[in-house]
Amino acid sequence: MESLRILGVDPGLARLGFGIIERGPGDSLHHVAHGCIETGADTPLPERLRHIFQQLTELCRTHRPAVMAVEELFFSRNTTTAFTVGQARGVALLAGAEAGLAVMEYTPMQVKQAVTGYGRADKRQVQEMVRLLLRLTSVPKPDDAADALAVAIAHAHAGRIGELEARLAAGKRTGWVWERGRFR
């Protein structure tokens, strides 16, 4: 299997987290980069959105991911926050589309399920699994970057499951064996 480079995005206007991983042979996951794109609250909204777009475009140009995985929004109370984060999310989706990437979206529950095996895992559990899956010495910081890495991992796992489902639907043997918590 060829390697697949994935850019995970945790949307935010003040701080947008990004995480880049590579899914390699044997379903191995490798950390490439992570960090945050920050914008100041005193900067006009259009300038903040442009900065996010430019930085994501540069990340795509530098790291050449094939896929952008973006976390869907889930806000139950604060509509103002939902709108501003939604604008940053829209800019991220546009940056991915403009770079020619496949853009996929995942709910927070899907991310937690894919990373920890439990859709209601807490933030610390998700971050610790990110550390373990990517074989890092410490939990990635800041939290937004760790969340973005989790979104990228969710896509890496979802892609492998999708391949398995497609082969099964076509009536083909998979040749895959479940071993040590993953298909081989």
TrEMBL record:
GO terms for cellular component: cytoplasm; Holliday junction resolvase complex. Binds 2 Mg(2+) ion per subunit. One of its GO terms (molecular function) is crossover junction DNA endonuclease activity. InterPro entries: RNaseH-like_sf, RNaseH_sf, X-over_junc_endoDNase_Mg_BS, X-over_junc_endoDNase_RuvC. Its EC number is 3.1.21.10. Its cofactor is Mg(2+). It catalyses: Endonucleolytic cleavage at a junction such as a reciprocal single-stranded crossover between two homologous DNA duplexes (Holliday junction). It is found in: Cytoplasm. Transmembrane segments: none annotated. Mg(2+) 2 binds at residue 71. Homodimer which binds Holliday junction (HJ) DNA. The HJ becomes 2-fold symmetrical on binding to RuvC with unstacked arms; it has a different conformation from HJ DNA in complex with RuvA. In the full resolvosome a probable DNA-RuvA(4)-RuvB(12)-RuvC(2) complex forms which resolves the HJ. Belongs to the RuvC family. This is Crossover junction endodeoxyribonuclease RuvC.
